[in-house]
Amino acid sequence: MEFDFDLERVFKIIKDKNCEKVGLQFPEGLKRHAIDIVREIEGKTGARVIISGNPCFGACDVDTILAGRVDMLFHFGHAAMGGYENVVFIEARSSVDVIPAVKAALPLLKTSRIGIVTTVQHIHKLEEIQKFLKENGKEAIIGKGDKRLRYPGQVLGCNFTATRVDCMEFLYIGSGFFHPLGVAIATGKRVIAADPYLNQAGEVSPGRFLRKRNGYIASSMSAKVFGIIVSTKSGQNRIKLAEMLVESAKKQKREAFIIMMDIVTPEQLLAFRVDACVNTACPRITIDDAERFHVPVLTPKEFEIVLGERKWEAFEMDEILQA
Ligand code: SF4
User: Fold this and answer.
1) Residue 151 domain-assigned?
2) 197-229 tens-digit pLDDT
3) Domain check: are 80 and 110 in the same one?
4) Which of 56, 72, 92 is the last residue of a domain?
5) Which residue is closest in CA terms to ligand 1's atom 1?
6) Domain end: 145, 180, 205, which one?
7) Which atom of ligand 1 lies closest to the CA of 61?
8) Predicted structure pTM score
9) Partner of 278 for a Cys bridge, out of 210, 265, 303, 309, CB 3.0 to 4.6 A?
């Protein structure tokens, strides 16, 4: 396996707590390992196992219904978030070598003081990266984020607070475009993304993304009726923010209605007769599914622009913060 699931810890917890029935929850990318892990747990501990088949996109998304039916729920692939009595987060660290990708990034780094960030899969490699950069004449800074983040240097798609450090340039280590793009917009600084699965590095350019978002904002300017989406997931629920947005809309003579749901999908919104929506659930939904919604879906900050309460130039990423 390319991930370390720390199953010895899982076996120990099951035995120490005398668990008879346990639940397992995996993000989409790790579900293919579920059956093998169940075989191992049942073989080693004798506990009965139930797998959550629900979609899971983050630590914000604990299957609380399954947790209520088992002695212990093991949530794989994410760092701990929120306090649950019988939920254990198992992080699934990647064993991939990150140094070749960092080597590829070296010639692209223009300054000597670099902020380094990554996702939890590679968080255990940050010290090694810091050392490698030092050997190559760079000082690597690892920022401590807010309480939503378990580790210094960690970023989530909804939280870039670990980038609030004194440097002119960032190195992101990980795959995908969303996190490095988020770092670039949240900081307004140069970001080099180093992908340890492809051993490639490149500069992130947020221009196309910003033009698209500006398009959604522009097409919502004349909207009169807004749906304000709220998720019931404990780590995504921003009902207070939604209520504030409804009040702001009223002040600007627009109508806004709160629509609450568990998983937010374009299909579930299809039947609502609204001109545009504002998403207060996972910020990634607004971006990743943008083209699949039947109406423009804005972030809360983009909605402020539409209402005239924020300037276009003050565009910001939507973040879920935890002081
Ligand atoms: S809210 Fe979205 S980006 Fe944040 S942890 Fe949850 S799934 Fe990830």
Assistant:
1) yes
2) 999 999 999 999 999 999 999 999 999 999 999
3) no
4) 92
5) 282
6) 205
7) 6
8) 0.94
9) 303
